[in-house]
Design goal:
- It is a single chain.
- The protein has 316 residues and is α/β, with parallel strands linked by helices.
- Helix content is 50%, strand content 11%.
- It has 15 helices and nine strands.
- It has helices spanning 2-22, 27-34, 38-50, 61-76, 91-109, 122-130, 157-167, 184-191, 194-205, 221-224, 230-239, 258-262, 269-272, 288-296, 307-315; strands spanning 80-84, 115-118, 140-143, 172-173, 208-211, 242-244, 247-249, 277-281, 302-306.
- The longest helix is centred in the N-terminal third of the chain and has 21 residues, at 2-22.
- The radius of gyration is 27 Å and the shape is elongated.
Length: 316
């Protein structure tokens, strides 16, 4: 008789557990369905856990992020990869999360006397907005590429540089030029200016570079800024995978237009490989191809991204 009572209790507790954990029934609904009181349902659910009929595990994304980061670093030969959690695989959400994680990483690693080279764009601006003040001496901030826009589309170049400078108690060195000139001759002539030469040289001397990666999609920032005509744009979309510092490269990380590259003002991509810390900050479905190409070109030795992007990069 006792065995039958125990068997009935087991079956009832399992049924209650199925309704509660698998079908999202409330305890009151389960009580009505099983013809018992709500306190009885509570006891049945507790009994199910005690007997091992129900096993509850919590998937904490923070526990797996370090593992993802270590695997990214191993796969792509990076010094480090920091992976942050995003609740949604949606670009704007990811951009904010990645920018905040990158700001935290930059603040952790910046030391006295560092020269930090930065770029611009919406991700970099979000990163700069997330920086807190860190009292370090002798830090310099320098733009790695020209920050003057041809259009009304905001680049946040000056705002980004100012926020970096405020965070580290210094002043920013600006590169007050368009990032891409109409001709190589004009670019070379402007670069002969002593002030411009000093800024470009300071960018080369920077031991830390912080940058994002652009795409070749129709709404890419550089396309919206009006630097390219229709034919140049089509060529970049057909041959390119993305850009860093407004220098476009293909899926292997090789510059895909030497002509456009020769008209571009700022740091050359191979110089990023020489940095003590070359920090790529990017994530989201639209950026995956460009990130993969940038890593193929070995332009970054540190990556800050989200878990969705990390899993996509590791899937190949």
């Amino acid at each position: 008789m006792t065995d039958k009572i125990d068997l009935d209790r087991q079956r009832l507790s399992i049924e209650a557990a199925r309704l509660y954990y698998l079908s999202d029934y409330s305890q009151q609904d389960i009580a009505a369905r099983l013809g018992v009181s709500r306190p009885t349902v509570s006891r049945l659910l507790q009994y199910a856990k005690e007997q091992g009929f129900v096993r509850i595990s919590i998937a904490d994304p923070l526990e797996d992020l370090d593992v993802l980061g270590a695997e990214l670093a191993r796969r792509f030969g990076l010094q480090a990869a920091r992976v942050c959690h995003s609740p949604q695989n949606e670009y704007r959400e990811i951009r904010g999360r990645v920018a905040a994680a990158a700001a935290e990483y930059v603040q952790e690693t910046v030391r006295e006397g560092d020269i930090i080279g930065i770029t611009w764009g919406t991700t970099m601006y979000a990163l700069a907005q997330s920086l807190n003040h860190k009292p370090v001496r002798g830090v310099e901030i320098v733009q790695l590429k020209g920050g003057v826009s041809h259009s009304q589309v905001p680049t946040y170049a000056a705002e980004t540089a100012n926020l970096f400078a405020e965070a580290f108690g210094t002043v920013a060195r600006y590169l007050p030029l368009p990032v891409i000139f109409d001709s190589v001759e004009l670019k070379r002539m402007v670069e002969q200016d002593r002030h411009i030469q000093r800024i470009i040289e300071l960018g080369r001397q920077a031991n830390v570079a912080v940058f994002t990666v652009g795409t070749v999609e129709d709404d890419a920032l550089l396309f919206r800024l009006g630097y390219f005509d229709g034919e140049q744009r089509r060529m970049l979309q057909e041959a390119g995978a993305g850009d860093i510092c407004s220098r476009f490269f293909d899926d292997q990380g090789v510059v895909c237009s030497e002509e456009i590259n020769a008209r571009t003002v700022g740091i050359d991509l191979p110089e990023l490989r020489l940095k003590e810390k070359s920090i790529l900050v990017a994530g989201g479905p639209r950026k995956i191809r460009a990130i993969r190409a940038a890593l193929a070109g070995r332009y970054a030795n540190i990556l800050v991204t989200d878990q969705f992007t990390a899993l996509s990069l590791l899937a190949d």
